[in-house]
Amino acid sequence: MATDLLQFVLYVVALTALAWPLGLYMARVFSGERTWLTPVVRPVERGLLRACGLGAEPAGQHWSRYALAALAFNLAGWLVLYAVLRLQDVLPLNPQDLPRLTPDLAFNTAVSFVTNTNWQAYGGETTMSYLSQMVGLTVQNFVSAATGIAVAVAVVRGVVGRETRAIGNFWADLVRSILYLLLPLSIVFGLFLVWQGVPQNLDAYVEATTLEGVRQVIAQGPAAAQIAIKQLGTNGGGFFNANSAVPYENPTPLTNFVEMLAILLIPAAFPFLFGRMVKDMRQGVAIFAAMLVLFLGALALTYGSEIGGNPLLADLPVDQSAGSLEGKEVRFGTGNSALWATATTAASNGSVNAMHDSFKPLAMLAPMLQIQTGEVVFGGVGSGFYGMLAFVLLTVFLAGLMVGRTPEYLGKKIEAREVKLAVIAFLVMPLGVLGFGALAAAIPSAAASAPAAGPHGLSEILYAYSSATGNNGSAFAGFSANTVFHNTLLGIAMLLGRYVFIVPMLAVAGSLAAKKTVPASAGTFPTHTMLFVTLLVAVILIIGGLTFFPVLALGPIAEHVAMLAGQSF
Known about the structure:
Layout: H1 2-30, H2 38-51, H3 63-86, H4 103-114, H5 124-127, H6 130-160, H7 170-196, E1 206-209, E2 215-218, H8 223-232, H9 253-277, H10 281-307, H11 333-346, H12 361-372, H13 383-403, E3 408-409, E4 412-413, H14 416-426, H15 428-442, H16 444-447, H17 454-469, H18 484-513, H19 530-554, H20 556-564
Antiparallel strand pairs: 1-2, 3-4
């Protein structure tokens, strides 16, 4: 246990130490300032923008044009990826002669990767050709992450702007996100993974005979490149079916630690980007502190539940001194499994190194609730931060109501328009989780995909639709999602969770950018203090609790009570 706690401390310290300078670097990139990569990257950036007919310095866009550009680009990406998946059997680089995907699975998968969800209703190495992995999935890992980063930067510009209609240019932000941030980090990280033993080749799968005399097919392929961007871009979709529990994807304790850092690195850097761009680092530190408090609370609940062992096994001759090891890789143990589960659901990542379906009920509840609150701790690349800004604006508005004055945030008055738009964004999660989840539980053929009985079966359905709507992508291993019903409904949930959040937040950015700034006064509520951090955390927990506590009480909480009474499901 002491070793686990020491690793948790080391993880938080390393994450903070890396995120701060990265956030400052990102602020320079998106402010158009010179960086150490500028001499190499700037000519490529200008060439790409000119080739697209935009000129070397594209003009700023109104929020509606910015949103339209983002939606059009993502639609084009979906069409290309859908075509690749449907034509996989006749396209090259398919050494295993894998068949094309069915229409519903191709729809679900294309939506999943375009929305930065990377939900997988299939086994990666048994379904996807090398071409589909590289040209289809890996490309979307880059551009879907870049879309989230671009939108978040646009929202920050809305906070910073003064009496302007422009919040930046989507195409310029997209290109900069890839060239200055995602591509350099992925190259370094990919080479690190190859060094540690992750495959990166185009070889056919290898047949081997085990010591028991059983034939086994060992998958090969261009894995390292996809794993690097899937973690850095909080994508999460794995090259291999069992994801980061597979030695080929996560071979050593060092790769395990570094991959966990990669999951939260860019999301954790965004508060520091924000602090520099608003010219008040205290604002960014306050948001980072709120994120960290929520993260540590979820980690404490997950780890505390798992390290205590399973009371159902208390009377059996089973050694539980290392905690509950059901569904976990012994080489990672309870601590690394709990930390990964917390990190992957704090971000919209979805990769796993242990099976969440095997976690004890309260350990299942913590990751699920992190997704349901909008994955703002630390959230997906970009998407987590603009989600957190929505909570910040709501907190400021509520604080203003308490003291009876018009709320302000960084000199901008927060009025009915901004709050209404933020509430529209908040309604996405209840619609996708509670609405679609209820539909899936009420239809017998759909409910059959959750094989467990009672509250655990409800948790399996609840987790699936939370993961899809929250653009997370992780799943309970026991849930059979590859049906026409779930492929279709989960795909729609992913679209709602991504774009019905993006458009209102860009509208908020446009509204804020057009406002005048007002000087701070004695009545201005400070948004950089511990009081504000406490209020922000409380608002997030209260909204999540009021929305989802009833159904959580029927799922993981009821299962926990039953477990204490000696009943399992």
